[in-house]
Amino acid sequence: MRRLTYSRNVFVPVTNLCRNRCGYCSFRREPGEGKLLSRSEVGRLLAEGGQAGCSEALFTLGEMPWMESGFAGLLSSVGASDFIEYLAELCEMALDEGLLPHTNAGVLSQEDLETLAPLNASLGLMLETTAHLEAHDSSPGKDPRLRLDFMARAGRLKIPFTTGILVGIGESRDDRIASLQKIAGLHQDFGHIQEVIIQPLDPKPKTALENYPPPGEDLMRQTVELARSILPSGVAVQVPPNLSDPLELARSGADDLGGISSITPDWINPSRPWPSLEDLSSRLKGYHLRERLPVYPAFILKGWYGERTEDVIRSLADGDGLRRKDYL
Ligand code: SF4
To answer: By Cβ atoms counted within 10 A, which residue in 160, 168, 247, 284 is the most buried?
Structure first.
């Protein structure tokens, strides 16, 4: 039986304010309508995550929210003056709860990256594409050079890293190949890419791409095959099982199903609930589902973790670097 891994997460949408305006996004809110979760709201989610047996606190947020008007007011309403310090505090809260933070905060300065690195088991940033597309015309942070540079800086700091591509946002097959080659090159240079998400566009009403056709099964299968052929074998190919048929994509070479939450929605694709593990087990005949942590075994075995995450990783991982089976 082939193994397919996944992690159990609690999804914490820290803030939906963002300096970008991507043509497919329904997560971001306009200034005045945005939200910043308070410590008590985050604390409640983390406690629920701990009780549900999660290992991962998935902190997701818009990029550089402080560039949006009104954000300073939101920050002072939670008693904070610096957003990255506040985010670091939320990561500490997760670790205190026995959960491993995995933060997707967009492109960060070197100083902010170095603040968050020791508090996270891994970090994430979707490359999405190396092409310059209309969907990103109003998103300065989606300049592929900025994103590749950020990932290289994370590599120099030996941060286990998750990235990915978005399929169906106007890019061509050559663009997908070029994006995957860039990611493979980063891994060859720094050895820090743990997984690459192959994420299909899920067109949302009232977004610029609402009438784009979502990529069909054939395109998704071909893209997973491309990824598997271009990426080094130590880099997992991840497919979100709430957005595409995981059985077909596992047969095409996918290794991982990503974070699955039984207690919180996928706030990026809220109309696409995650399937239950029971449902996935019965659909994925011939595959053995195995839980991992938000940092992959190879990095745990190499000791790629910070002082602050080490204790939690040691308490959650088994000798192979996967999730201990006796945790519940
Ligand atoms: S960067 Fe993320 S949160 Fe911001 S607009 Fe784009 S998809 Fe939405």
So the answer is: 160
